[in-house]
Write a structure and sequence with these properties.
globular; mainly alpha; two-stranded parallel sheet; binds adenosine-5'-tetraphosphate
Amino acid sequence: MSEQIIQPNKKKVLSCIQPSGMLTLGNYLGALKNWVAMQDEFDCTFAVADLHAITVRQEPAALRQQIYSTYALLLALGIDPEKNTVFIQSHVPFHTQLSWLLSCNTQFGEMARMTQFKDKSQKHPENVNVGLFSYPVLMAADILLYKPDFVPVGADQKQHLEIARDIATRFNNIYGDVFTIPEPYIPKTGARVMSLQDPAKKMSKSDENANAWVAILDSKDDIIRKFKRAVTDSEAAVRFREEQPGISNLITIYSAVTGKTTEEIEKEFEGKGYGDFKLAVGETVADTLAPIKQRYDEIIKDKKALEQLYTEGAMKAEYVAKKTYFKAMKKVGFVL
Ligand code: AQP
């Protein structure tokens, strides 16, 4: 099996996604579309980061369904489980095990500065759990186990990669060379998609207002309805303006989906109102997502085939993770 995994000429990339809800158009345009594009150029490891999802309370049956659904969706998007390592994080126990070694080499103050902890603890004041505080260490373990050269990062993820690099550098300095220090990879294309109801916030799958996000698996009618209701302004001119984040967000989405530039879009909709533009964005997004949904519906039906793929994916991942983990254990002084 090892021969299948190691592709000596390709640089290694690692990326994860949380199954904390239905994956959104934001996840697609900001991350997943690039995952599909990266698989030819890089040796890719992709994980469904299910352990991270429980930093926020999840309903067990829904979580299980979301994990299946997220894995199936990666395949439906065209991610090839033969060419890449595609697995479910909790199937490889070395993530949580390495996380402990790293936790003992991470400072409390470093974690306290993480903006996502501050955001999520404000959002869920009834459940400010220790996992929510320390999840960046688990994220560092997710990354460092696979020794990737690059980790794709959106603007909202930079801090996580920085902390992983800091922890790895410190560990290597204390115990000797174990971890590769990963570099950020800024994809050539990648849009930051904002909430359709509050364009000051990013589109998030855990947003309680279902009109704020478009799921990749939403029906055409739902997608069009959500775009029709998108918050804009009263100027009614399809022009990109920093001070009008609602219409600008719709232009960004339309541009990411069609490949047209902002100028081309402004020209196309000159003299037309927001109603026409919202309908065009909704229809185009729905038509782009429809074939993905169709493939997904096929894949999710065959649970046996899915199980075989994620089991094989976990075996490939474990082969790599185990080596890194035991090297770290040995360096720290454990008896192996
Ligand atoms: N709105 C977005 N625009 C562009 N990119 C986005 N990503 C997420 N939302 C947007 C990118 O998707 C990848 C996977 O993210 P994740 O699901 O692991 O976690 P997240 O960033 O916390 O995504 P959500 O949807 O906001 O999840 P919840 O609501 O559970 O916290 C990342 O590369 C991210 O940049």
